[in-house]
Amino acid sequence: MSSLSSHCTKTAVPIITLLTDFGTSDSYVAQMKGVLLTACSTCQLIDITHQIPPQDILSGSRILAEAALRFPPGTIHIAVVDPGVGTDRPIIAVALAGHQFVLPDNGLLSHLLSQHPLDCAVQVTNVPLAQPSISCTFHGRDIIAPAAAHLALGGKLSDLGPATQRLHRCQLPTPERLSDGIGWHCPIIAVDHYGNLALGSCQELLSQIRQSLRVEVETACSVRQPAIVVDTYGQQAAGQLIMLVDSQCRLELAQVNGSALKLLKVKSGDFMKIWPVLGICP
């Protein structure tokens, strides 16, 4: 990890993204944006999402990793999924892969840290722009947003507090071999808007699927059944269960023009069994 003198390339107009579990029916997101714009009126605010399931740190970590590095280098990312707000859990500011992040140290960086080395990190103990009265239940507004605004105005990471190296990481769900040595026990890590199931993946399993023409799948609520391995959805007829490597390089189980979620009666966090089948489809 490099020294605190490390810095990110600045964008011409400061870009700040926001990811939270706040939803949009309350004033919480607007309050954070108001603090950011009051401190840095020129910044561009981009919502990644505010629909993370409440207190679901792993989902927040996954979506942050999928989206953050698609933005220009120098972007500042705020992430607030914070069931420990007001406790002694730290708030951190981090430089990673040319970007900066301000967030609670509760595992929200787990997916990114599994893919990219950490450049530097500080524990946020001093925020020049902090709100005069800090709520015990809204650190996103009163500490995290001001810290991000400080960075957007050209402030240094090191201004925010002392260096830290031990960041909290969540254990990421991964597939495991079944006792038969052929099949896999795979976690369902996400369900998208279409009812497609994103599965925990590893290189060995991805390689096996790419060499297979079909797989067989089984859940706690469904019998063992075939799914055709394809490159994209339009290669099979409507209603067909298919498996592919999705745009995030994960295994995905889908039903063409339908919902694998409804078909298989599963949810995110459930597990399913997968057996790659080599050879010609019947």
The secondary-structure element order is: EHEHEEEHEHEEEHEEEEHE
Question: Got a strand count?
Answer: 14
Helix proportion: 10-25%
Query: How many angstroms does the end-to-end distance come to?
Result: 53 Å
Strand order of the largest sheet: 8-9-13-12-11-10-14
Can you tag this structure with a few keywords?
single chain, 282 residues, 7-stranded mixed β-barrel, 28% strand, disordered N terminus
Structure write-up:
- Helix 1 packs parallel to helix 4 (139-152).
- This protein has 282 residues and is an alpha+beta fold.
- Strands 8-9-13-12-11-10-14 form a seven-stranded mixed β-barrel.
- It has helices at 28-39, 57-67, 110-115, 139-152, 203-210, 260-264, and strands spanning 15-20, 44-49, 76-80, 91-96, 99-104, 118-123, 176-177, 184-191, 197-199, 214-219, 222-229, 241-245, 251-255, 271-277.
In short:
With 282 residues, the protein is of the alpha+beta class.
Give the SSE map.
Layout: E1 15-20, H1 28-39, E2 44-49, H2 57-67, E3 76-80, E4 91-96, E5 99-104, H3 110-115, E6 118-123, H4 139-152, E7 176-177, E8 184-191, E9 197-199, H5 203-210, E10 214-219, E11 222-229, E12 241-245, E13 251-255, H6 260-264, E14 271-277
Parallel strand pairs: 1-2, 1-3, 3-5, 11-12
Antiparallel strand pairs: 4-5, 4-6, 7-8, 8-9, 8-14, 9-13, 10-11, 10-14, 12-13
